[in-house]
Design a protein that fits this description.
Elements: H1 3-14, E1 25-35, E2 59-61, E3 67-71, H2 78-93, E4 100-101, H3 125-141, E5 151-156, H4 161-168, H5 175-193, H6 196-201, E6 206-208, E7 220-223, E8 226-228, H7 245-248, H8 257-269, H9 273-278, E9 281-282, E10 285-286, E11 304-307, H10 316-323, E12 327-333, H11 345-360, H12 368-384, E13 392-394, E14 397-399, H13 401-420, H14 427-440, H15 446-456, H16 461-479, H17 483-506, H18 511-519
Helix pairs in contact: 1-13, 2-11, 2-16, 5-11, 8-10, 11-13, 11-14, 13-14
């Protein structure tokens, strides 16, 4: 089963090139709700001291005005990415006054949907579009689901790797076409095998009852204010989190770039009757961008996305179509409450190793039956992955989580050795070894550790999360940002506010005309 992977690794080793993967880039996008000292979602505007959420490159908001998104630039090693994320957190905490950053993916106390303020981006057309898109999400799915936070792991192989890999694969395509095809091989394997990420790193086995309002819930009661899944790893990645029936029916292909773009384009151009009943405007104001299956590409919830940096005002599908895949965005990580920044260096190193494994492992096209198996595996691991009795499906076989994960771990070890060459240390080996220990002992997973902390301290999910919020707050208040770092982020905040003003001043067409031009883009 892993013969092709081993052959590729042997050929790569045979090139005599050391540190083949040196220069691969990691970028992190980490979401956190701003909350009050009693755990309620903050109702205050995005702090002006943090700059403009529209234009700041490192500090913005996601769905809600209170849902901060902290972004690193692409960096060439895990330590640098973790350090940068730590610096951003330090700057943010210094300007939150009496607020905290919520420490987990599943949100805090929710006093109804109206307690989740939709993000604002100013009066420009591009800012209005971002806000209206979020209003559309509200009407389609409700606000509560949008208050869930996660960590996105962005990764690209080094440019120097691709000519070597193309040569050993005897690829006769144009280089960018070869790169795009290779990234889609990675993406298909991540779909197949990505269940291992919530198993190892899922940290959302419990949630406040207020998240559900009056809805009936198929979860166990932990206490008077908490629901949980006894063996859950990531409620965020289960039916409780980012799932909806409309998108489950979408047939978006991951077999190649052309089919992927065609499928997404069809979804953003096809009207959907239920959304047509909502309408585009109410009382003269836009309440969604359009009435199609997807308003824009980003509405498509997926474990993993192919990405290309879009130019100003450019549709993401056109960016991919015109310039190919530049990197992949992994959306399967919960916020790790056991690390102050929500993701550890060890996790990043495991992720990099795993993604290279997905690239090099044989990756045939995905068919209908396998896609059903993928959906089953992702769902069952998210809702009850630590249950020793569950079985995963693989090409007509039934096997345990630990058996399949053990296979993956075994095949990742030579890749970790290659990656360690770039740092002249054994950091990647250690990250993969730590995962092996967790595979064999599910009690070491973050999901199990969170539930154990709740039991040991006789605490609700809310109180356990609040304790971690206070610990993180104390950590960042104590470390203090270096003066040059503070100055850098202060300057970025000021520049972002100026850039927003310039964008607003430059608008010379109506919002309606702006939308028409945006959606009429073609090659």
């Amino acid at each position: 089963m892993y013969q092709r992977l081993r052959q590729r690794l042997a050929r790569l080793n045979g090139t005599g090139r050391g540190a083949l993967f040196a220069g691969g880039e990691i970028g992190i996008e980490k979401e956190s709700l701003r909350v009050t000292r009693d755990g309620n979602i903050a109702q205050t505007p995005h702090p002006k001291a943090l700059g403009s959420a529209l234009t700041h490159p490192y500090i913005t908001t996601d769905y809600s005005e209170a849902l901060l998104e902290l972004i690193t630039p692409p960096l060439t090693d895990a330590k640098a990415a973790h350090d940068y994320l730590c610096q951003i957190h330090g700057f943010v905490y210094g300007r939150l006054q009496d607020e905290l950053l919520w420490a987990t993916s599943m949100p805090c106390l929710i006093a109804g949907e109206s307690s989740i303020p939709i993000a604002e981006y100013g009066t420009s057309n591009v800012g209005t579009m971002k806000h209206v898109y979020r209003r559309g999400l509200e009407h389609r799915y409700g606000r509560t689901m949008q208050a869930i936070a996660g960590v996105h792991f962005n990764y690209s192989l080094p440019r120097s790797f691709w000519p070597i890999y193309q040569d050993i694969e005897n690829g006769g395509q144009k280089e960018q076409d070869f790169i795009s095809d290779a990234y889609f091989c990675l993406i298909r394997n991540f779909q197949r095998l990505g269940w291992i990420i919530p198993y190892l790193f899922g940290a959302s086995p419990a949630v406040c009852k207020s998240f559900f309002g009056d809805k009936t819930v198929d979860l166990d009661e932990f206490d008077k204010s908490t629901y949980f899944g006894p063996y859950a790893t990531s409620l965020r990645m289960s039916d409780v989190g980012y799932k909806n029936k409309v998108q489950e029916r979408l047939d978006i292909s991951y077999n190649n770039l052309t089919e992927y773009v065609r499928g997404l384009t069809r979804a953003i151009e096809t009207p959907y009757p239920e959304y047509e009943r909502i309408g585009v405007k109410a009382d003269g104001e836009y309440i969604q961008l359009n009435t199609n299956v997807l308003q824009i590409e980003n509405e498509y919830y997926s474990f993993v996305r192919p990405k290309q940096v879009a130019r100003s005002g450019e549709k993401p599908t056109l960016a991919l179509q015109n310039r190919g895949v530049q990197y992949v965005e992994i959306r399967a990580l919960d916020v790790n409450l056991f690390d102050p920044v929500g993701i550890s260096e060890e996790q990043m190193r495991f992720m990099e190793t795993f993604l290279i494994f997905c690239l090099l492992h044989e990756s045939p096209p995905l068919g209908g039956d396998e896609r059903k198996d993928i959906g089953h595996n992702q769902q069952i691991v998210a809702c009850c992955g630590r249950d020793p009795n569950i079985r995963l499906r693989r090409r007509g076989q039934s096997l345990s989580v630990t058996d399949w994960a053990g296979e993956i771990h075994q095949e990742m070890q030579p890749i970790a050795q290659l990656l360690d060459q770039k740092e002249d240390a054994e950091h990647y080996h250690d990250a993969v070894a730590a995962a092996s220990t967790t595979i064999s002992d599910p009690d070491r997973t973050p999901s199990a550790r969170l539930l154990e902390a709740m039991r040991a301290n006789h605490q609700t999910f809310y109180h356990t999360a609040m304790d971690m919020c206070e610990k993180h707050n104390a950590y960042f208040r104590e470390i203090n940002c270096a003066p040059d770092q503070v100055r850098f982020f202060e300057e970025e905040a000021a520049k972002s506010l100026q850039r927003q003003k310039e964008i607003e001043d430059a608008d010379d067409i109506s919002f309606e005309e702006y939308l028409n031009r945006y959606f009429k883009q073609s090659r």
